[in-house]
Every structure is written in C-alpha cells, then in structure tokens.
Amino acid sequence: MTDTASTTPTRFADLQDRKIAYRRFGSGTPIVLNVRFRGTMDSWDPLFLDELSKNFEVIVYDYSGLGASTGNPSYDRASLVKDAKDLIDYLGFETVVIGGWSLGGVVAQKFTATHPDLVSHTVLIGTAPPGTPEKSGERLFMETAMHPNNGLDDQIILFFEPTSERSRDAAKRSLDRIDSRKVDRSPQIAESVFLKLLSEAKDRTTIYPDPDGADGKSLASGLRPILVVSGDHDIACPIENWLSLTTKWRSLHLLSIPQAGHGPHHQEPMFCAETVASFVRSHQAR
After folding, report:
1. What angle do CA 249, 253, 256 make, to 5 degrees?
2. Regarding beta strands 19-26 and 11-14, do their DSSP bridges make them parallel or antiparallel, or are they unpaired?
3. 11-282 belongs to which CATH class?
C-alpha cells in the first residue's frame, strides 16, 4: 500500500544531540519543506503534499524541540537552517528542491544562500523576501496568530481571504483534510513555548528576512531558479514586496493566487503542486 501524507509514519533522524522527527513518501527528486511559524508536520494540507508526491519524494519535518522533535527549540534562522542541513545530510541527499511556507520560506532562502550546492530549485510560499519590506503585514494577522488556539474562523483570517466565499469554503475543506490524520500526529506547540520563542525572535529579529538584504544578493544572481507562490491578499507577507524584485532577481518566478491569503497552497493545493512540478521540470540551475 502506497503511503500518503495522512498515513506515512513518523520517523526520527538520530543526530546524537537531538532527534529530528520527519516523514517521507513519494518518489522522484527530493523536496524538503520547511514549515511556518508555530507549525508542525501536521500543519501542511495533505492534498498538497499528496499531489507533490506524484512527482517528488516529499520530506516534511519538525524543527528541533518542536512538535515531535527533541532538542532546544529556537526560531533563530541559523538554527533552523542547521536543522534542514542536518536532516538532508542524514538522509544522504546530494541535492534537493528546498521549499518553505512563511517562516519556512525565510529558512529556504537562507538555506539556498548558505548551501547553494545542495539546492537545485527554491520554492517559496506565502513568505517575504530579504531586506526592508516596502509594505508591512497587517496587524490583524499577529493579533489572530496570538490566540491560544486557532480554529476555523482564525484559520480563515490567517491563511485565506475572509471576503471571498470561495476562499472560506476552501478553508473548511483544507482544515478537514489536515484533521484526517488521526494517529501519530505531531504534538501541538504549547502556548508557553510559542510565546517564549516569539519574545526571543522579537528581541533578536532573527526569524525575519535579513534586514540588510545580504541573502538577497546571492538569491538575485539567478544561479538557482526560484518560484514564489503568493495569495493576492496575504496579510502577513504582502505580495507587493516581491513585485519590484521580478526585474532584479534573474531567475525569480512569481505566481499570484486570486482571492487568496497567506496559505495559497491550501486553497489551491492541486494547482500549486502541479505548478511546482512544472517549474522544476522546466527550469534548470545554471
């Protein structure tokens, strides 16, 4: 029986100082996905992952000390990049498609700039580019994200487009799919841990894109093809911050999903997965 996102077992990479919980399924080029802020492996829409698995070997994982992983939790960019690097080395991959959603997209950018020889393509979903943003996210996002639990109404605000009936319906279907995994789920991140990490992140501004845009200089070179998937109304990471870069980054491809928010791949999972596959097939690293 073929594993799916909802059935594939959780495995552990024993890295001596910690254990990284991960899941892998599908076949083809490996795609390693870095999850959003306050997310775990079970924050991904299974349909999106299952569609990716038709063309890729999909790897999702929990950051150190979060979800089912052990170790010291941190949202420091360097620590998160180390998690991805250590897992990739453990699995023996020579090159991967590196991807990420929101905070995970920042990790994927930093990983690409830090370990370019390990990356064939970079896929960024609902995230921000390096440097000072031209347009800030909306206050409503962080106010909602701070709630102890984020039910359907919060999910619609955080990741979809509340003014669109189509988007609201997609949110319900996505949440139902996420809830379909009944056993072997990653533990939710405790509110106390989340608040501690948030406080540390604000103190050091480490989870946000590089303020001086240092990573952007590497990413702009065009050595690695880059795909950005964004909702047209992302209240956390506005798409407007990517528009000016389309003429500056030599290999940047920007896809806008209409009537969508911070989780466009959960609203249009099949379309987004097919676009990722087409992008990887059609664009080779220089």
Report:
1. 125
2. antiparallel
3. alpha beta
